[in-house]
Amino acid sequence: MAEGPAVVKVGGAVAGDGAAALADVGALWRRGIPVVVVHGGGPEITRWSERVGLPARFVAGLRYSDADTVAVAEMALARVGKALAFALTRSGVPAVSLGGRDAALLTAEPLVLGDEQGHPVDVGLVGRIAAVRVEVLGALLAAGLLPVVGPVAPAPDGTLYNVNADDAAADVAAAMGARALVLCTDVPGILVPGRSEPLARCDAARARALVAEGVISGGMRPKVQACLRAVAGGVGAAWIVDGRRGGVVEAALTGDASAGTAVVAAS
Ligand SMILES: Nc1ncnc2c1ncn2[C@@H]1O[C@H](COP(=O)(O)OP(=O)(O)O)[C@@H](O)[C@H]1O
Ligand SMILES: [Mg+2]
Does the pLDDT at position 101 exceed 90? Predict the structure, then answer.
């Protein structure tokens, strides 16, 4: 098994009742495996956006973000991050929540998206990660503190971008030479019609076909793309698992096929 940390992404959909995924993270940590948590906050961002009169709109599975949406996202993600760090800390795993602006942890750049015909798709201030200051995460881990990362990040000119948490987790994992990327969500893995079990494995070609057929849609699209990018970037393994189920993060790290879907470059 590779030496780097496990990067565990906790989806907004499970962050609220992410007890199972967090318990798994705690179990790994107690076994001496370094872990970095990256989190989303979809429902919390939507809730606060609506409260301030900003309706949520999704384009290609990504939240369309104007400057106010990014501001609300940074606030909502901070709340989610603090709650996760607090829950971990109370369970005996001292954790620190930080965003892209803290110690310049993450630098963003605009995400340029095209549709099938190659026409540009406007997603507003949605970014992708241009750089990760891995030494910040390394220093926290070396001090015995588990980093909890929320993915709003500044570009070099200071403009803030909203980065999809799956994407950010993939970049953090690649930058850290992670042993594994585990995306915890609210489904058991990649589901396909006519099967009750998720795919045990999915490679790049299959993923492309499933996206084209519309079987992989919405929030699953960035997940699959993030996993493919992570494995291409040298991460040991990339998994999509059900974060509401106990033991799945540990199962994924041991390569147990029942953990969820393992995304592989080619099979
Ligand atoms: N083929 C698929 N298999 C499983 N889930 C899918 C698939 N296609 C789309 N989805 C959707 O992706 C969602 C997970 O993404 P998302 O809602 O962004 O959650 P998270 O907060 O964990 O990022 C699932 O709840 C499901 O509705
Ligand atoms: Mg999502």
Answer: yes
